[in-house]
Write a structure and sequence with these properties.
about 200 residues; alpha/beta; five-stranded mixed sheet; 7 helices
């Protein structure tokens, strides 16, 4: 009898003004359970990091995919999110050695895939595999933002992770946009237009 692999998929970084949108995909191992999986937004950073390491160690397979700020500007954030999710599943497939039988996608849309897929609203709170994917995506993206902060400390990325906060708006107005800002996003575009005169 062939094994059935169910893959959970979620993203992090749709709302920020800077950086990639990152997706995670996870097939959990029923013989090696991970305790404490839940929506990454409901976990402390320390707990997310702990569970990230647990996922790396105990999941049957995992994958990460992303779409860059340039791609986001070219095809829009929704299509870029779908692209990142597909890339995450493709990455997982390489590690698993085959396509999973089905993908459970957090949200109300599914990327185009050669396998069965189901969109689940608030899936990161309902399906442990999606919760694991949520943690994988969030930790990966937060680490990227920490590295970006080291390159551009003037924007305060380590504090707001690129989200549209007052501090981020103030930094944008003072310093303009960096290469990783999403130029198609209205707040960034307005600042660039204002600077251009």
């Amino acid at each position: 009898m062939s094994l059935v692999w169910i893959c959970g998929v979620d993203e992090a970084g749709r709302g920020p003004l800077v950086g990639s949108v990152v997706a995670g995909a996870v097939v959990l191992d029923p013989h090696n359970p991970i305790e404490g999986l839940k929506d990454s937004k409901k976990l402390t950073p320390a707990k997310r990091e702990f569970l990230y390491e647990q996922i790396m160690e105990k999941a049957k397979a995992w994958g990460v995919g992303e779409a860059s700020p340039v791609e986001i500007d070219q095809i829009n954030i929704l299509q870029a999110t779908m692209l990142a999710m597909r890339r995450a599943i493709e990455d997982l497939t390489t590690r698993l050695g085959c396509w999973p039988n089905k993908a459970l996608i957090d949200g109300n849309r599914c990327p185009e895939l050669p396998i069965s897929a189901e969109a689940i609203i608030k899936g990161d709170a309902k399906e442990p595999a999606i919760s694991a994917a949520s943690i994988l995506a969030k930790v990966t993206r937060d680490r990227q933002m920490q590295l970006l902060h080291e390159r551009h400390p003037e924007y305060g990325f380590a504090q707001h992770m690129g989200y549209p906060t007052q501090a981020h708006f103030a930094a944008l107005q003072k310093f303009g946009a960096c290469s990783e800002h999403r130029k198609s996003f209205a707040p960034v575009r307005k600042v660039l237009e204002a600077i251009a005169g």
